[in-house]
Write a structure and sequence with these properties.
alpha+beta, single chain, 139 residues, four-stranded mixed beta sheet
Length: 139
């Protein structure tokens, strides 16, 4: 798979750009409705994709090598689905040819997040949500 083909697996949901909290004792990961400062709240895409790793030191690039290890990726994630040998969902832009179907299907974070800017880390727990773990039939 070429780099361009790999990048096209991103459905534009923005769920991977949500801040997550991990319980140090149990390893449980929960999502918050707080998004990375670079997430464009409308398009649900990175606002500075090419410079994201320099601007956001804890941003993790999704590669064929890293995706199988990232247990927090949502069940709807195109990268995760391909890594697991599964098909993309009907609303994925590669299936429909339309980048808006991920939003119309209610999968994206559009209208459901807040930028992390100015929020203290100790307040993140006030923004915990469960919908990033939902499948499309639940989302």
């Amino acid at each position: 798979m070429s780099a361009t083909e790999w990048e096209s697996l991103c459905d534009g949901c923005g769920r991977c750009c949500l801040n997550k909290l991990e319980d140090w004792d149990t390893g449980e990961v929960v999502w918050t409705s707080l998004s990375c400062t670079l997430l464009d709240q409308h398009s649900c895409r990175c606002g500075d994709y090419h410079n994201r790793l320099e601007k956001v030191p804890d941003c993790l690039p999704l590669t064929p090598e890293t995706v199988p290890q990232l247990t927090w990726l949502p069940p709807t994630c195109g990268y995760r689905l391909v890594a697991e040998g599964r098909d993309l969902y009907w609303w994925h832009p590669l299936v429909t040819g339309d980048p808006e179907t991920v939003h119309a299907a209610g999968i994206s974070v559009r209208g459901r997040t807040f930028p992390e800017d100015g929020i203290e880390l100790e307040d993140y727990e006030n923004f915990v949500v469960d919908w990033p773990g939902e499948g499309p039939e639940e989302g």
